Amino acid sequence: MRLVFCGTPQFAVPTLKHLLGQAEFQIVGVVTQPDRPRGRGQEVSFSPVKETALAAAIPVHQPEKIRAPEAQTLLEGLAPDVIVIIAYGQIIPGRLLPIPRLGWINLHASLLPKFRGAAPINWAIVNGETRTGVTTMRIDAGMDTGEMLLQREMEIGATETAPELAARMSELGAPLMAETLRGLSAGTILARAQDHSQASSAPMLKREDGRIDWTRSAQEIFNRVRGFAPWPGAYTTFRGQTCHIWGEPASDALLEINAVAIPGPTPGTLLFHRNEISVRCGGSTNLRLRAVKLEGRKQISASEFANGARLQTEEHFGGP
I need a surface site. Which of 71, 124, 164, 171 has the fewest CB within 10 A? Predict the structure, then answer.
């Protein structure tokens, strides 16, 4: 089976490596995003998919725009039976979809039709899901609306962050893609239409998504800390400065002690008990503070933050 592999970030790498190790698949080309400046130094670097392809001596193609006529000419010339596409980063125009005889097969990081869109892993955690999975699907002209092929389900760890979950999901998806391709070749997979009435959205993340609303419960805020790692993170303001925070829901015992220490604290109030610092959240819940990063400074522990800021009674996060 002649394959073109289309992808960019680390999430796509386990599948590319897995397919490279299977004798029945011939990867005739890899399509990935153009090299971009990355990191604090803005040095131009290769995508993880490009690095993997070069190490395997697979031809790499990096069209600036996949919709450009020369990209269509390239794909037609490669004559693939199937194009595997994972987190490529550009929308595929409808006129390219008929090029591979078996279609463009995508590995999507959710149990479709839930969490269609650019950030399914993040929004699953933010929304408090305890289970998720990966779906192979044949892409169509819509946003993750194509026919489903195979699915695998998995648990989301109670403290798992988006990068941690993404790493596990990418490993789960690699053999599932190979199984999907074999089934398509043999004609043994029955494609299933999605139930669009059950669909939910996972839009691209925006910086504003990370702003903490302290009227949410501690568990909801904790889910956002986990789901918005590493970007945009969960952030608030302190004495007029932006600061990112890390923490987890406090125990019931600490809640009771703090409730006595400061009767009826408003959401965002910083509370103290022995060496612990917590923040009052909605529903009379507390978030135990673990670390803080003030704008332009390095990340420090909650206790270092308290000592350095000389916190006063009833100071707030989220104020002016």
Answer: 171
